[in-house]
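Consider a concrete sample entry:
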Amino acid sequence: RLADQDRSRWDRGLIAEGQALVRACLRINRPGPYQIQAAIQAVHSDAATARETDWRQVVQLYDLLLTLTPGPVVALNRAVAAAEVDGPEAALGLLDALDLDSYYLYHAVRAELLNRLGRTAEAGEAYAAAAAHTTNLVERDFLERGRDALNEL
C-alpha cells in the first residue's frame, strides 16, 4: 500500500528526472492520459508521506483523466483519492456505482474503506472477495493477512 511505503528509499534523482519530464510535457498544453497519469505520480512523489499528499490535486487530475479515458478502473482510482478528501463513506458511494465485481482491487479498496468506517465484518467479506478474485499468490496472501488482522481486533 502507498501509505506503508518507506519514501526515504525512493530514488530522489529519478523522481526529479521524472518530474522534469512531466513539467516539460505539460508545458506543451496538450495533456494526454499518460501525461495526466505521470502528473498524478508526481504529486505523490512530492509528498514526504501519503498523508501529506495533495489529495485534492490528485482528485482533480483523476477528473481530467476520466474525461480523456473514462472507465471504471480510473473511477476506482479516483474514489481512492476522494476517500482522502471527502472520507471513506463518500468513497464507498462512488464505488457502488462501479461495475467491477470481478476485479480484486475493487474489493480490496472496499475492504480498506469499510475497515476505516469500523465495519469490520463487511471489511472481512470484502478482503475475502478480493483474495478470491486474484490469481497472484503474493497479493492473495497480503489480502488474507488483511482479513485475518480484522479478526484479531
The mean pLDDT is 94. The CA atoms of residues 67 and 132 lie 32 Å apart.
